[in-house]
Design a protein that fits this description.
- 56% of the residues lie in helices and 16% in strands.
- The protein is of the alpha+beta class and 160 residues long.
- It has a three-stranded antiparallel beta sheet with strand order 1-2-3.
Length: 160
């Protein structure tokens, strides 16, 4: 009986040795590291470029607010004097040129300056839209087209 057990034990040892050689898992750790590195890069790309997108939208809105104020500051002084300070009508005809001037001074690209301007203008208020184009930082590896954001603001002429 002991001989039969030894034969079984030897067969089991051979089976275990063959099984260990067949199930060699060397390199499986490297695959996991590569997968986690790629996942980390994708998440970092969304965090960095998501923050950049928010920042650029805020910048476009800020420039639009300032450009609207700049355009609304061009008032008709004669009408203001004639109304004894009760009415300050905006020279709304100058709104496109004033927005263009402000956008140029703000450092926007030529294409963004050309795409920005007055949405509507009247003697009492001006509405301005600013376009801002940027390239993503990390997602640019996968998506190379520029991204465009817009900011819109309104300024009114108020006296008193």
């Amino acid at each position: 009986m002991s001989r039969g057990r030894r034969a079984l034990s030897a067969g089991a040892d051979d089976w275990l040795r063959v099984r260990r050689e067949a199930c060699d898992d060397s390199g499986s750790g490297a695959a996991a590291v590569i997968m986690f590195a790629l996942l980390f890069m994708v998440l970092a790309a969304f965090v960095v470029d998501g923050g950049l997108s928010i920042s650029k939208r805020e910048r476009a809105a800020d420039i639009a607010e300032q450009a609207a104020r700049y355009a609304a500051q061009d008032i008709d002084e004669e009408a203001l004097r004639a109304s004894q300070g009760r009415n300050a009508p905006i020279n709304y005809e100058n709104c496109p040129s004033r927005v263009h001037q402000f956008a140029t001074q703000s450092g926007l690209s030529g294409a963004d300056v050309a795409a920005s301007g007055c949405v509507s203008a009247s003697a009492q208020q001006v509405r301005v839209r600013i376009r801002l184009t940027y390239r993503p930082v990390l997602t640019g590896l996968f998506y190379s087209a520029p991204i465009t954001v817009h900011g819109t603001a309104t300024a009114e002429s108020v006296t008193g």
